[in-house]
Design goal:
The structure holds 2 protein chains of 2 kinds.
Chain A: H1 23-43, H2 52-71, H3 74-98, E1 100-102, E2 105-110, E3 115-116, H4 118-136, H5 145-164, H6 168-185, H7 189-208, H8 219-229, H9 238-250, H10 263-266, H11 278-311, H12 315-339, H13 357-375
Antiparallel strand pairs in A: 1-2, 2-3
Helix pairs in contact in A: 1-2, 1-11, 2-13, 3-4, 4-5, 4-6, 4-12, 5-6, 6-12, 9-11, 11-12, 12-13
Chain B: H1 5-43, H2 45-56, E1 57-62, E2 69-70, E3 76-89, H3 96-104, H4 111-123, E4 129-136, H5 138-146, E5 154-163, H6 171-174, E6 177-179, H7 182-187, E7 201-203, H8 206-210, H9 212-216, E8 220-226, E9 232-239, E10 247-249, H10 253-263, E11 268-274, E12 280-286, H11 291-296, H12 300-308, H13 317-320, H14 330-340, E13 349-351, E14 354-357, E15 360-363, E16 371-373, H15 375-381, H16 384-394, H17 396-405, H18 427-434, H19 440-447, H20 457-469, E17 478-481, E18 484-485, H21 498-513, E19 532-538, H22 545-550, E20 565-572, E21 579-585, H23 591-608, H24 622-646
Parallel strand pairs in B: 2-10
Antiparallel strand pairs in B: 1-8, 2-3, 3-4, 3-5, 6-7, 8-9, 10-17, 11-12, 11-21, 13-16, 14-15, 17-18, 19-20, 20-21
Helix pairs in contact in B: 10-23, 14-16, 14-17, 15-21, 16-19
Classes of the chains: A mainly alpha, B alpha+beta.
């Protein structure tokens, strides 16, 4: 067991662990969340309610969760990885039966004080499970077909469940995150070539299924793809959102129209301005400078994660940190692509900035894992 | 699992390699996002900024107030009056039904209108006002205003609506306005945005339509900021519109009113033309309709009453209907013959009561014949055979040419609707339109204004005016627009021999002043005002030989719509003509009995510019005239009072 590799002497213990935090990441995350508070304040017309204040409370809760998770030694989390995976998987199955319906999909379990999205939990659980799996697997078996098939099953099962909810955005994120975890673990290039080829075939099959009885996606998902490919075909219907979002972003110019002066968001032309499209509000009010600043913050978080991963000689820890960074990256990259008109609108929030509890808490817990791995790294 | 040091370093090396590759890809993607952002926010910023402004800024039109229409003395013919309506905003009235119930106790509400309003409110955005009652009175508006606290969401609104205080009197001249229809929009290639304002009124017929451009004015505009669902957030700026130009007509309200009263329910029309500039001081068609009903949107029942009336109140008979001019055409035949030199005024023709031409017998109205007739006698007694004879000598082409010089067969340029050109037939016309050659009988018929010849009362008045002046005087209906006088139309000398015209006028004078004249009964006693005229009676049916054998049926014994049309044209005073008048009474019987008295009364009224002294009338007419004058005076009083109460 790898915990034997750690010497108690070099691993901080007790409250001293706090000193060994990767404080850069904490500061960066707080800065990102701060941007979120500012924008939620702005889109509410200069008011802390209804969004900014709950978001702040949740962020504080998120920080506490992160600290608690960070203080637990990383090897305990590694041993818990499959339990977490099975738990998340069980919730995904449960949500099929008792989930609340919203936006034409079954996604939530109402816990009373918050709405839990098991698919969010699964993003982290999958990363943990894959990291643990490759930590356990002898290196030389990494690219053997059977040992490649096993993680594929681990990825496909939850992805399939999420797809039936149906939540195309999360399903794609799970698929990409899982695949890239395998890539990081060192699976042979040839498999990826094969998957890409198969993926291309799969996409064409999905499109061919349209209008037949075995249609693989819901009509609204197809429409979203149509709208993405040409928003102008339906400027007042589904294409309206993306068109207005692009107008909001583009009209920001270099320095934006000023704090709380964005006409697109203030006059409600911008849809979902406090959740999926919050980046457009930022881009409209603070322009290119503002948008670039947030992007830079995100990239810095990513860079610090990669550095922390490469500093860490523990295989599980490295893979986990890279996996969390990757998940974080996928969140903001997909969201930004979507709101800039580079990707179909699939309902992925901007991490730590979009209004929403589940995603933020899960993400903060994930960064707790990163901190734990950092604190308890072999020295 | 325990790993060897070699394994550990290989694991680390592999993760580092793959991690850096993936990190590079991630950074590459982030740069792509940054470039996209730059492209949208820097390169395309101006376009997107424009789109954002278009989103948020809405142009709202402010309807201009329509120009008014006045008579030649500046008296109002068409004006704008405040029109009140009541609107409701759903979101302000919590309980729509309760508020409407309360409103119903104060204002008379139309149940259909309420149903429609409720449906519209349910459909449209909650902050949009929906009209619940239209054309409410000022009293009702005040009641609503007093009870405003109990009526949340209810607002009385004021707009301008057209009103025609003289009602029927000017319907055919001025026409009316109404809400813009799809057909109206189709008339324009690019309709002005102002036409899209709901309930915006434009001219539908008559002067209202033909002077639409001048009367309408220019819409103002305000720019407002709206949100995504169209709610107005604030007004950014506004530009006031320009009111429409006022139009002054040449019509005299009092004369026109007099004529309407004088015609009563007779199916008739009268045109009065001033001989100085060609001003039309009256154009009346009777019966008429109330244009105010059309402004509001006429009910099917009311429209049916107008449409089914056999006396056609909707038709503007004075300008759009053409009648056979009958004997009033005889001046033209005579002038053509004199102009061509084929006859002299003193030459006589024998009238045996008929003339046989081309094997067909043409009758004179007097079966026994008139005996020897010269120009003056023939016109005075309206002998037909004399003109048959003249026509055979001069030919149709010369007659047609003379008729056209005198303004027949021509569309006169006045801004009324459906102005007809009538018909002056000649050989070409018949060949092209009837596919048959001209026969001599056609010329004979045309010589007394029967057969193919058609002319409108307006053309008749122009003919009379041109005979009186010898000039190509043309009618003018609009005196000024926005205070700028429109040019008069006295015309040029027509080039007729003045001696011929003088003989003709003399003959016309004797029609109404010689004891043997057909209009002697309708003479004017006042020497300074005496008129020269001509009666006409035009058949609307063919008299068969069998009927003639039985003896000519008297008009009174025929059903109304088969009786002859009665016509009269005149100018006055004879010595120094100031006005020309034409009268047509549809199915009125004889020109001398039905049309001439009307023409005489109108002429006197016009010449005196008000009620003439009773001494101007023949004794037998004075009682009737006095009664009419008193009735009109009472009406004037009434109108004045209602105008004051409006103001």
């Amino acid at each position: 067991m790898s915990y034997l590799e750690y010497t108690v002497k070099t691993t901080p213990s007790g409250w001293r662990k706090v000193l060994y935090f990767n404080w850069s990441i904490v500061v960066l995350l707080t800065a990102v969340a701060g941007v979120g508070f500012l924008m939620l304040y702005s889109v509410a017309g200069g008011s802390l309610s209804p969004w900014a204040e709950p978001q702040m409370k949740r962020y504080i809760l998120g920080l506490i969760v992160m600290f608690v998770v960070a203080l637990v030694p990383i090897w305990i989390w590694r041993n818990m990885a499959f339990v977490a995976y099975l738990g998340a998987f069980a919730l995904l199955v449960a949500v099929e039966f008792i989930g609340s319906v919203g936006m034409g999909a079954q996604r939530w379990i109402d816990l009373g004080f918050m709405q839990l999205q098991p698919s969010e939990l699964m993003k982290i659980a999958l990363v943990m499970a894959l990291a643990a799996y490759y930590d356990w697997l002898p290196l030389k078996k990494t690219s053997r077909p059977f040992w490649v098939l096993l993680p594929i099953v681990l990825i496909i099962l939850p992805t399939g469940l999420v797809l039936t909810q149906p939540d195309l955005g999360t399903a794609i994120l799970l698929l990409i995150a899982g695949g890239l975890m395998m890539f990081l673990a060192g699976v042979h290039w040839a498999y990826f070539g094969l998957v890409i080829a198969a993926g291309a075939a799969g996409i064409s099959t999905i499109f061919k299924s349209r209008g037949t009885d075995w249609q693989l996606l819901k009509d609204y998902q197809f429409r979203r793809i149509d709208t993405f490919l040409d928003p102008s075909t339906d400027p007042l219907g589904a294409g309206y959102h993306i068109t207005q979002a692009k107008i909001a972003m583009g009209s920001g110019g270099w320095t934006g129209r000023g704090f709380m002066q964005g006409t697109q968001s203030r006059l409600n032309f911008l849809p979902e301005k406090h959740t999926d499209f919050i980046f457009n509000t930022l881009a409209e009010e603070f322009g290119f400078v503002g948008g670039m600043s947030l992007l830079a913050l995100y990239v810095l978080v990513l860079v610090f994660c990669i550095v922390a991963a490469l500093q860490n000689r523990d295989r599980f820890s490295s893979l986990l940190i890279l996996g969390v960074g990757l998940t974080f990256f996928l969140f903001f990259a997909v969201n930004m692509s979507m709101v800039m008109g580079l990707a179909p609108v699939v309902g992925v929030p901007l991490p730590l900035v979009s209004y929403g509890g589940s995603a933020m808490l899960v993400l903060m817990a994930a960064f707790g894992l990163v901190q734990s791995a950092h604190i308890h790294r072999p020295r | 699992m325990k790993r060897t040091a070699k394994e550990k370093s290989e694991s680390w090396a592999r993760i580092t390699r793959r991690g850096l590759i993936l990190g590079g890809v991630q950074l590459g993607f982030a740069s792509a996002l940054a470039m996209r952002m730059r492209y949208m926010q820097v390169d395309q910023a101006d376009e997107f900024r424009l789109l954002a402004e278009e989103n948020r800024i809405n142009l709202r039109l402010i309807p201009p107030s329509r120009g008014q229409i006045f008579d030649r003395e500046g008296r109002v013919i068409a004006a704008n009056e405040p029109a009140y309506r009541i609107t409701m905003v759903r979101e302000e009235a919590d309980d729509v039904d309760a508020v409407l119930d309360r409103l119903a106790q104060l204002v008379s509400l139309d149940p259909d209108e309420i149903e429609r309003a409720k449906a519209e409110m349910a459909r449209s955005a909650p902050f949009l006002p929906v009209s619940v009652a239209d054309r409410v009175t000022w009293d009702e508006v005040s009641r609503v205003a007093v009870n405003a606290p109990a009526l949340p969401g209810i607002t009385p609104e004021v707009g301008l609506s057209r009103i025609y205080p003289h009602r029927e009197t000017f319907a055919h001249v001025v026409g009316y306005v109404g809400p813009v229809s799809e057909r109206d929009l189709a008339r324009y290639e690019e309709p002005e945005p102002v036409l899209r304002i709901p309930r915006f009124q434009i001219g539908k017929v008559g002067v209202e339509r033909n002077y639409e451009e001048q009367l309408r004015g220019r819409a103002g505009a305000k720019r407002v900021e709206v949100n995504a669902v169209g709610r107005v957030m604030r007004e950014l700026d506004r530009r006031e519109g320009e009111a429409g130009s006022d139009v002054q007509l040449t019509i005299d309200v009092e004369l026109q009113n007099y004529i309407r009263a004088r015609l009563g329910e007779e199916s008739a029309s009268v045109v009065v033309m001033d001989l100085a500039e060609g001003d039309l001081t009256a154009i009346a068609s009777s019966p008429s309709y109330d244009p105010n009903k059309f402004v509001r949107g006429i009910s099917v029942a009311d429209y049916g009453i107008y449409r089914d009336n056999i006396r056609r109140p909707l038709a503007s008979k004075a300008v759009q209907d053409a009648y056979p001019p009958g004997s009033t055409f005889k001046m033209i035949t005579a002038l053509a013959a004199m102009d061509a030199g084929v006859v002299s005024p003193s030459e006589t023709v024998w009238c045996p009561g008929h003339l046989t031409v081309g094997g067909r017998r043409f009758h004179c109205w007097k079966r026994a014949g008139h005996g020897w007739m010269n120009l003056e006698q023939s016109l005075r007694e309206s002998c037909d055979v004399y003109y048959y004879d003249l026509a055979l000598k001069v030919g149709i082409e010369k007659i047609a040419e003379t008729a056209r010089r005198l303004g027949l067969g021509e569309v006169h340029d006045i801004p009324m609707s459906a102005v007809t050109d009538g018909l002056i037939p000649d050989k070409d016309w018949k060949r092209i339109n009837r596919g048959a050659g001209w026969v001599i009988g056609d010329t004979v018929n045309a010589s007394i204004g029967q057969g193919f010849v058609l002319s409108s009362p307006l053309q008749q008045a122009v003919m009379s005016a041109r005979l009186a002046t010898g000039r190509s005087i043309s009618p003018r209906l609009v005196k000024s627009v926005d205070g700028v006088e429109t040019p008069g139309r006295p015309g040029e000398d027509l080039g007729f021999n003045e001696a011929h015209l003088a003989r003709l006028r003399e003959a016309m004078f004797s029609v109404s002043n010689n004891r043997r004249g057909t209009a002697y009964g309708s003479r004017i006693i006042d020497d300074a005002m005496r008129m020269a005229g001509k009666t006409g009676t035009s058949q609307v049916r063919n008299i068969t030989a069998a009927e003639r054998a039985r003896g000519v049926v008297r008009n009174e014994d025929l059903p109304w719509n088969r009786r002859d049309h009665a016509l009269f044209v005149n100018f006055a005073p004879y010595e120094a003509p100031r006005i020309a008048v034409s009268v047509v009474v549809e199915h009125g019987g004889g020109g001398s009995s039905a049309a001439a008295p009307i023409a005489r009364d109108v002429t006197l009224q016009a010449l005196f510019g008000g009620d003439p002294p009773l001494e101007a009338y023949p004794t037998k007419d004075r009682d009737r005239i006095r009664e009419l004058q008193e009735r009109l005076a009472a009406e004037r009083e009434e109108r004045l009072k209602s105008a004051q109460s409006r103001a």
